What does this fold into?
Amino acid sequence: MGGSGQASYDDAHDPKYGPPHPVPIVTANETSLKGYGTIVTSYDDTEVEISTWPQPGWRPICPGTGNQGGITGGEFTYLWDGDLCLATNKAVPDGDYVIGRLPANVSRDKRTHVLVREANYHPDGGQVFFPQDGSPFVALLALPGDDIGLNDFRAFYFDGSFGFQIHADIWHQPIYPVNDSAVFLGKQGKVHACVVVDTVEEFGKYLLVPLTCEQ
It folds into this structure.
């Protein structure tokens, strides 16, 4: 993935941020994911969407160029360690991330929500997330646009029976496992750019992301 996962969650419980911004959650299906990405039922048969580099001026990009970086893939593992959610993307260098922290009033034994402060997007291609063990997970997504706001984020609950591929330019985080841990297969463009938003730096707020559809 790259991009987000670098911010500190040490002060996530600091009252100076006030109540976190609640993110609505919906069940992930073909209809709800329209515009965000596509359902993946076969990892091996799914091709990563690669975007050709944008045309910078009036001279066109030569056909067959600007999209030749290839694909990288590997395991993407997730683990709840105490009140922290950790992720490791073996497909990219420096792929170890802290991606969330439980709110102070949420039990480690019954994880209902997670505090999140970052998201990123790739302008040059999609990214595939495919669960290996069929365990449920939540994806935090937002539609394209650099003028992102807190109200633009949505959480999607996946029951674990299928994966998904986000489109290029879709704001996202690594997924959040509902269970204690999860292993995914992932793949994306080998050469990929990242654009990042930190909601604490820009808006002074954490996002409160549900981990269950039982609202």
Observations:
- The domain at 15-44+71-210 is CATH 2.60.120.480 (Jelly Rolls).
- The chain has a mean pLDDT of 92.
- The chain has one domain: 15-44+71-210.
- The chain is about 0% helix and 40% strand.
